[in-house]
Amino acid sequence: MSDLKEITCLLPERLKRIVETEVMVPGKNGFCKLSEIRIRINRPAILMYNNNEEKVIENIKITSDDIAYIIQMVTRYSMYAYQDSIRQGYVTVKGGHRIGVAGQAITRDGHICGQKYISYINIRVAHEVVGCADEIIDFICSGGFKNTLVVSPPGCGKTTILRDIIRHISYGIGCVPLKVAIVDERSEIASSHVGIPQNDIGIRTDVLDMGLKSEGMIMLVRSMSPQVVAVDEIGSMEDVMAIKQIINCGCHILASIHGYGIADCMNRRELAGMFGANGFERIVVLSDKNGAGTIEEMRAVKNGGL
């Protein structure tokens, strides 16, 4: 369970007091619904909540000293040690909270190799939703685990659902327990901090943190002998080719993808031939109709058709 102190310990004292007051006052949204703290140079801080409500902290204008303090706390006073994370635009801290940063890009040979003059920070608050996949498990595990694709527009809970499916099959909750390997390219599923998962991903799960999906899937099949490989937000042809390879190796796949329904995914060129006996056998579609994580549809796929 996330703790407010994991967030407030990163903040300057004057902002820390405001955040604690705003999210812990009885009758207000509370920490359980806090989703982001937006920090922008020379602008007021803004608290964002899961219901899209926001609270602008008008009486605090963010200074360069505020941002420098937060960066020092996030990187433990060593920007150099976190330079690879900074290059990618975020650092994961204790509790699984993800600190996004933006400033002036440092480029080399046409590619971003770092950042300086950081002026914008997005503290994304991690919240596990244990049990959110309860109604899915029987659908994807009855008669043995089925290769599953979770389809969702941005912000509709696909990573949260994916994580809970992993937790179920790793513990064997409602299904036969299986060995799982996660390629956590953006540190969002396990939310590892110094190599330690901050989220509950089960007792039979191994994690390759911040590894490229296409390479990481093959690597984990060879090194950790998983029964299921889990990845978030597939999309490239390289991802699809790696999935085909691990399925051919006899391993199962659990993946998510940005999308707006079953037809949207099945019509994508890069996913051609990836549905049915030699690909994804189950599709779960999410929306935010009744809040993030609403299960819109569950469909079994056979021989390339529905």
Automatic annotation (TrEMBL):
Signal peptide: none annotated. NCBIfam families: spore_III_AA (TIGR02858). Residues 144-290 form the AAA+ ATPase domain. The gene is spoIIIAA. It comes from Lachnospira hominis. The lineage of its organism: Bacteria, Bacillati, Bacillota, Clostridia, Lachnospirales. Pfam families: Spore_III_AA (PF19568). Keywords: ATP-binding, Nucleotide-binding. It comes from the Bacteria. This is Stage III sporulation protein AA.
